[in-house]
Fold this sequence. Notes:
Elements: E1 2-5, E2 28-31, H1 43-46, E3 51-57, H2 63-74, E4 77-80, H3 81-90, H4 96-104, H5 111-124, E5 129-133, H6 139-149, E6 155-160, H7 163-171, H8 182-205, E7 209-213, H9 218-230
Helix pairs in contact: 2-9, 3-4
The structure holds adenosine-5'-triphosphate, the ligand O=c1ccn([C@@H]2O[C@H](COP(=O)(O)O)[C@@H](O)[C@H]2O)c(=O)[nH]1 and magnesium ion (MG).
Amino acid sequence: MWRRVTSVSHLTFAHKSTVNKNACTFKCWESFTTEIPRKEKTTYQRAKTPFITFVLGGPGSGKGTQCMKIVENFGFTHLSAGELLRREIASNSADGIMILNTIKEGKIVPSELTIKLIQKEMELSDNYKFLIDGFPRSEDNRKAFEQIFGAEPDVVLFFDCPEDEMVKRVLNRNQGRVDDNIDTIKKRLKVFTALNLPVVNHYLEKGKLYKINGVGTVDEIYKQVHPVFSSFHFEVRV
Length: 238
Ligand SMILES: Nc1ncnc2c1ncn2[C@@H]1O[C@H](COP(=O)(O)OP(=O)(O)OP(=O)(O)O)[C@@H](O)[C@H]1O
Ligand SMILES: O=c1ccn([C@@H]2O[C@H](COP(=O)(O)O)[C@@H](O)[C@H]2O)c(=O)[nH]1
Ligand SMILES: [Mg+2]
């Protein structure tokens, strides 16, 4: 039998809780009878300090593509917020229709819902290094994340790319996404400028932002990304 533990803040983010020291951070399941063996804690649950990277940039700026290379080289777990939302739609969950309509309009899904999906993936993970791709999308997202997690990201990557290049890439993507059409792209670009850029500026002011020139080949761009992570002395995979 398992019981829900409402706060394990002592297990997580011990040194990073500068935002809200009383924040209710992660929930986990803990055995409280001897009938069933105690569930193994994942690396993430054991780790006092997960390493969180927010990966920001406009639609088609290359966030997902560069995340794949960071995963390959540094063993991060990649959590694309958009992908988690698309998975929620595909699973016919109660929120699926609302999420689908929000994505079609290029708008932003309520913060608590996206954070719940991210949090669930992190709890299930065996890793402690996370790339959170395409989140936070707005100051509301950012504040809600920092409130719920009681922590700020370690690194924020921002892929800076001109609009015409982003539009070209998205229209050529061919992955069957409902939002990869010119009408929705225009809306996504407006939302990006109005709501996402303030988040970028916030982390710039905090000295956490790594601005990457998002124009060039995938490898040229990755050459700027690699040193960000090697400076933290993670094990590099060969
Ligand atoms: N440097 C690049 N040069 C040309 N094409 C690229 C480059 N990087 C990525 N692409 C292509 O552009 C498209 C968009 O890239 P990607 O999916 O990585 O962007 P994204 O920032 O994750 O976009 P979204 O926010 O819409 O999910 C993909 O088809 C990808 O293969
Ligand atoms: O935190 C988030 C992330 C995404 N969305 C919605 O999903 C689409 C697609 O996101 P991608 O990062 O481009 O895959 C985005 O336009 C939003 O509508 C969100 O609401 N919140
Ligand atoms: Mg993406």
